[in-house]
Amino acid sequence: MKRVGLVRTLKGVIVFLAVMAAVYYGKLFPSRIREIGMEMPELSWLVTPGIIAISLSAVPIAIALALFWRICTEIGRDNSFCYQNARWLSGIGVCALVDTAYCAVGTVTLEIIAGSPIWLLGTVVCVAGLGIALAAFLLSHLVLKAADLKAENDLTI
User: Fold this and answer.
1) Are 126 and 97 in contact (CB under 8 A)?
2) How crowded is residue 68: how many other Cβ atoms within 10 Å of its Cβ?
3) CA 95 – CA 33 distance, rounded (Å)
4) Cα-flanking dihedrals φ and ψ of residue 78, to 5°?
5) In this predicted model, what pLDDT tens digit does every residue of 88-114 receive, in sequence order?
6) Residue 157: pLDDT over 80
7) How many angstroms from the chain centroid is the CA of residue 62?
8) Which of 45, 68, 125, 148 keeps 20 to 30 A from 106, CA to CA?
9) How far apart are CA 15 and CA 88, in angstroms?
10) SS3 sequence, 33-78?
């Protein structure tokens, strides 16, 4: 795949993920939380805090998608292996870690407050988040090493 096609595909995936996140965070998650509040009246006091908590978890995801967009822009400029991309990949790793920690705290909190059996889903999400963070940090390291090699080669005549 040529560079332009790759960048278009990656940016298309980013737009798709952003639209899906908007649908989930804007419609599906809040409506499901409200349904749970109606099904379990003893937990109805958790509806508004639950919607706020879920909405806050979208912030690191939005930041990570924005950073990924910037990386794709640099790839489009044929500047894949640059120090900026390494920093942005580290930023994506930090966003994944923050969201993973937030999910873990939310899972434990729901288990304590409501006795909710959501811990299995929370564990799966946390493991996936850790995997994304690990991959982002690893790629950041590799891009940093490649940027060092590129800078070294640029100095060679």
Assistant:
1) no
2) 21
3) 24
4) 60, 40
5) 999 999 999 999 999 999 988 888 887
6) no
7) 7
8) 68
9) 18
10) HHHHHHHCHHHHHHHHHHHHHHHHCHHHHHHHHHHHHHHHHHHHCC
